[in-house]
Design brief:
single chain, about 260 residues, alpha/beta, seven-stranded parallel beta sheet, two-stranded parallel ribbon, 7 helices, globular
Length: about 260
């Protein structure tokens, strides 16, 4: 029986991830770290919510892991929902510093697998951009992609037994998805190259769970290189998902 700890459970992808984990027979306790408890999780017997001090998330994560015992996998879905409205400092803290602290504590507690949500085009060497001080934090911009790339690099450097980064080009089903995009996507998605195809949040979350189960079952003797799922690799992974579960849908909220 696997156990999990999740950061970012109040966001759209995080809710779907926890829903999938809670419905899979192979998963036991699911520990959710957050600044507050989420009502929708209260009726899920496997889910244990832990209110964390985000000012010292590494210690808060370590305290929870020390209390609950061995945990098989850690999942990070934390991110600024509306990146364009965030300051550079807020974006760096939420998309890089906090997930890195979470991963560091998970590795110290000998968590075996780590999965993180990043973004298509993630690149630690991407150059911050903007236009006369505007649009510096926009999703897909240089700063955003640089922070996502640095997070991947930080996690890879910790050398978990296995780790995976998921890089969707766009997300369908979040409160931040413009209605026009949600309407247009199914009409044009089949004609787009894989690297530009959007991901439904329910399917993306299922893929994160599926890959974690695969990696945990393999029990590698030495740490594996981080696997990157982007473009064709991500679309191919979606085709291999052996299970589907209901979506939490309209009950989403964001961190």
């Amino acid at each position: 029986m696997y156990t999990a700890i999740v950061l970012g459970g109040s966001g759209a992808v995080g809710k779907e991830l926890i829903s999938h984990l809670s419905q899979r027979e192979g998963w036991g306790a699911i520990h959710v770290l957050g600044r507050r408890k989420i009502d929708v999780f209260e009726g899920m017997p496997k889910v244990k919510q832990h209110v964390a001090d985000l000012s010292n998330l590494e210690k808060a994560t370590a305290d929870v892991l020390g209390e609950v015992g061995p945990v098989s996998a850690a999942f990070n879905t934390m991110g600024v929902g509306a990146a364009s409205k965030a300051t550079k400092e807020e974006l760096s803290r939420v998309d890089l510093e906090l997930p890195t602290a979470f991963a560091t504590a998970a590795r110290a507690a000998e968590v075996k697998h780590f999965s993180t949500l990043t973004s298509a085009g993630a690149d630690k060497d991407a150059k911050p951009g903007g236009f006369f001080g505007y649009f510096e934090t926009i999703a897909g911009g240089g700063l955003y992609l640089s922070l996502k790339g640095k997070l991947e690099a930080n996690i890879a450097a910790l050398k978990f037994e296995s780790s995976a980064a998921f890089r969707p080009a766009g997300l369908i089903g979040t409160p931040h998805t413009p209605a026009f995009i949600a309407w247009l996507n199914p009409k044009v998605d089949g004609f787009l190259p894989d690297q530009f195809k959007s991901s439904n949040i329910n399917t993306l979350a299922a893929a994160m769970v599926c890959q974690a189960e695969k990696d945990l079952a393999e029990k590698p003797e030495t740490p594996k290189e981080m696997e990157i799922f982007e473009g064709k690799a991500l679309q191919d992974l979606y085709k291999k998902i052996p299970f589907t579960h209901g979506s939490l849908g309209a009950r989403h909220s964001t961190e």
